[in-house]
Design goal:
Helix 13 packs across helix 16, helix 13 packs antiparallel against helix 20 and helix 16 crosses helix 17. The protein is 36% helix and 22% strand. The protein is built from 23 helices and 28 strands. By secondary structure, it is α+β, with helices and mostly antiparallel strands. The strands form nine sheets. Strands 2, 3, 4, 5, 10, 23 and 24 form a seven-stranded mixed β-sheet that branches. Strands 12-11-28-27-26 form a five-stranded antiparallel β-sheet, with helices on both faces. It folds into three domains: 186 residues, Penicillin-binding protein 2a (Domain 2); 241 residues, Beta-lactamase (3-Layer(aba) Sandwich); 178 residues, Beta-lactamase, CATH 3.40.710. It is found in: Cell membrane; Membrane. It is a single-pass membrane protein. It holds the Pfam family Transpeptidase.
């Protein structure tokens, strides 16, 4: 009952006025208390101000004048680079470094003074340190010492006023744990220079940036954003406290399609082949090999000989290898930067062009007597071979030059070339010059365009900087029949508009083009071509980037990629199924038929392969030699990989490049435990344990 009465009393109207009166009294008391507290607070503040101004004013004014704030940069960690199997190919090692800023010009005397002060602390000589300060003349910041000790850091901080432009930064040293493994592909990092500073807006001068390879191509992904630590510095130059910081954002990690195991195997195979080829070893100054995933276009391996160790550019040992780098051309990625004659490897493409044009049918037979005349020029079969009656499949298998000579000539409407007659052009063309401007131009265009449809003569678009593309040529009769560049697009546009393209070529160029002696391509272009043959005309874009992960994620952490590369179709070479089958059978004969040019290179293989050898006559240092070339894909009916190998000076394609391709394919299939490979030969995906004791690793290291 008491509870009920209490509730009723609260609701009674007659009790309202007494409640308000009591509330007013409570508020009045609180106001008096607050006023008292405010009075005391202001009194304390006034007393404190008097103390500061009168008793300690001089001290605080002096402190205010001498206390400074320094914004110390905190560099981000560069993203790591992983191979297709999750193995680290490039990573950042955290280090403290002492660096000299050069964006404020210093006199020579000032640099000498800095060197004299710092040299004892950095355990070097003043002259040596001065030379370091003068090195890398284009760089806006130069590293004086890396991996510095606490004592060295303390000295720089304590003597900051005596060391203008010198600062301690937390840096990262880029390291490539496998040395020259895919050195040209990975590239290296370097300092920002006066020449490229405008390219890196918002960067700190102390940040390292990609200069070549993947490091350059994906700089925007690998490079994070710097942070800052705001530090108070007293009059003695001592850091007395941290006001706060903005944390850096580390770069994203990337995973490549590159298979570290296969890359190592391929580089060892290439090195061993060169070392064992005593007849041509001195002629081979550069070579390249590329393996592509036929299903995706991903680069499985990309070999560029001679090899390059990116660590030379990041650990200070570059100076010991200058002679090697300047004389060997190792800084070039020969897979994408250099082009050369492809030889007979272009015959499958040109045979397809002839089949589609009706110049050749499956029943075509051409008598190969070892040579024919074109005008007054005699064009011989390689090594004087005589193959007799040859059909299209056999022409590819034995690599009949005479058959393809006839293909090129017929496309250009030059008829009647035999062992006794030089042939001629249709009388309806009138003058010889009109023939060159019309039927000859259309024929050479058909050959070159047929090759270009496969990507030959065009940049592949591989995600690497500085890619070169191949070129087409014709003989110019007004210049003594020397080869001159041929502008395919200009010719096609002119013919479409006027019906002719003025040129001063030679019908012999039709024959040369048909066998790969009037064009030059890069190994990467040839690999894309081989992949397109494997895919029966579907042309995929070659690529190296597979996945991008956040800074704290790796391929083996189970994290979902931020983004992944999607296979890109960049073209389609048209052809009827029977035409593709004919080309495939001719290329299969190359590796399986005892008469095939690469039969011995693939003898005993546990899989079927389609291939094509190429041997082009070239000159190195003024001496005649051969460009050894080979393309292939395997397995035959369900291709997984496509390979192209090029070795100028390597001799016959069958004896050098085809052997390398065979061993590369064996190594890849063994690594991936393909069921057709004997289990006794299976390997793991790990980079071989003997990599750092192999000649492929040691030879560049011993180059200084």
């Amino acid at each position: 009952m008491r509870r009920v009465k209490l509730r009723k009393r609260k609701s009674r109207p007659k009790n309202v006025a007494p409640d308000k009166q009591r509330a007013r009294k409570r508020r009045a008391f609180r106001v008096r208390v607050v006023y008292g507290l405010v009075f005391l607070s202001f009194s304390s503040l006034i007393l404190r101000m008097a103390y500061v101004q009168v008793a300690q004013g001089k001290t605080f004014r002096q402190s205010e004048m001498t206390t400074q704030y320094a914004r110390v940069p905190i560099l981000p960690q560069r993203g790591w680079i992983y191979d297709a199997n999750g193995q680290v190919l490039a990573w950042d090692k955290p280090v403290l470094a002492i660096e000299l800023d050069r964006y404020t010009p210093m006199t020579d005397a000032q640099l000498h003074q800095l060197a004299a002060i710092l040299a004892p602390v950095l355990e070097t000589t003043a002259s040596s340190l001065y030379q370091t300060m003068q090195s890398q003349p284009g760089a806006l910041q130069v590293t004086l010492a890396s991996n510095v000790t606490d004592a060295q850091v303390a000295f720089v901080v304590e003597h900051q006023t005596e060391l203008p432009g010198v600062q301690v930064v937390q840096d990262y040293e880029r390291q490539y744990p496998y040395g020259d493994l895919a050195g040209q592909v990975l590239g290296y990092v370097g300092a920002i220079t006066a020449q490229n500073v405008n390219q890196y807006k918002g960067y700190l001068y102390s940040q390292k940036v990609g200069e070549t390879g993947i490091e350059y191509e994906y700089e925007h992904i690998l490079q994070g954003k710097p942070g800052y630590d705001l530090v108070t510095i007293d009059s003695a130059g001592n850091a007395v406290g941290s006001v706060g910081d903005i944390a850096p954002v580390d770069g994203d990690n990337i995973q490549l399609t590159l298979d570290g195991r296969e890359q190592a195997e391929a580089q060892m195979i290439m090195q061993n082949m060169i070392d064992s080829n005593s007849a041509n070893k001195n002629n081979i100054t550069d070579a390249a090999a590329v393996m592509l995933n036929v299903k995706t276009g991903g680069v499985i391996a990309m070999v560029s000989y001679p090899y390059l160790d990116p660590n030379w550019y990041t650990n200070g040992s570059y100076i010991h290898h200058v002679h090697y780098l300047e004389t060997s051309g190792a800084q070039l990625n020969n897979a994408i930067d250099t082009y050369n004659y492809p030889g007979s490897t272009v015959k499958p493409a040109n045979m397809l062009t002839a089949l589609k044009a009706g110049v050749v049918t499956p029943k075509t037979l051409i008598e190969d007597d070892g040579y024919i005349y074109i005008g007054t020029q005699r064009k011989n079969e390689d090594e004087g071979f005589v193959f007799g009656l040859v059909n299209p499949i056999e022409a590819l298998t034995v690599s009949s030059d005479v058959f393809l000579y006839e293909v090129g000539l017929h496309l250009g409407k030059w008829f009647g070339s035999t062992t006794t007659s030089g042939g001629g052009y249709p009388s309806s063309d009138g003058s010889y010059q009109n023939y060159l401007d019309t039927d000859f131009a259309k024929g050479i265009n058909a050959l070159f365009q047929g090759e270009e449809n496969f990507g030959l003569g065009l940049p592949t678009g591989i995600d690497l900087p500085y890619e070169s593309s191949g070129k087409f040529y014709i003989e110019n009769y007004r210049k003594g029949n020397i080869q001159v560049p041929y502008n395919l697009k200009a010719s096609e546009q002119s013919i479409a508009k006027t019906g002719k393209y003025v040129n001063y070529g030679s019908p012999a160029s039709l024959a040369d083009a048909a066998i790969g002696q009037s064009q030059m391509f890069t190994p990467m272009e040839l690999a894309e071509y081989a992949m397109t043959l494997a895919d029966e005309g579907l042309r995929l874009k070659p690529h190296l980037l597979e996945n991008v992960f956040g800074p704290d994620a790796t391929p083996s952490s189970g994290a979902k990629p931020l983004r992944s590369f999607k296979t890109q179709v960049v073209g389609q070479v048209k052809g009827a199924p029977w035409q593709w089958h004919l080309i495939q059978q001719g290329m299969y004969g190359v590796t399986s038929n005892p008469s095939g040019t690469a039969y011995y290179a693939f003898m005993g293989a546990h899989y079927q392969a389609a291939g094509k050898t190429g041997t082009a006559q070239i000159y190195i240092n003024g001496k005649p030699t051969d460009n050894s070339v080979f393309i292939c894909y395997a397995p035959l009916n369900h291709p997984l990989v496509a390979v192209a190998v090029m070795a100028p000076g390597g001799g016959y394609g069958a004896q050098f490049s085809a052997v390398i391709a065979r061993q590369m394919i064996d190594a890849y299939f063994n690594e991936h435990h393909e069921p057709w490979m004997p289990k006794s030969g299976w390997t793991s995906t790990a980079i071989p344990a003997n990599w750092k004791t192999s000649a492929a690793y040691l030879v560049p290291e011993q180059s200084h």
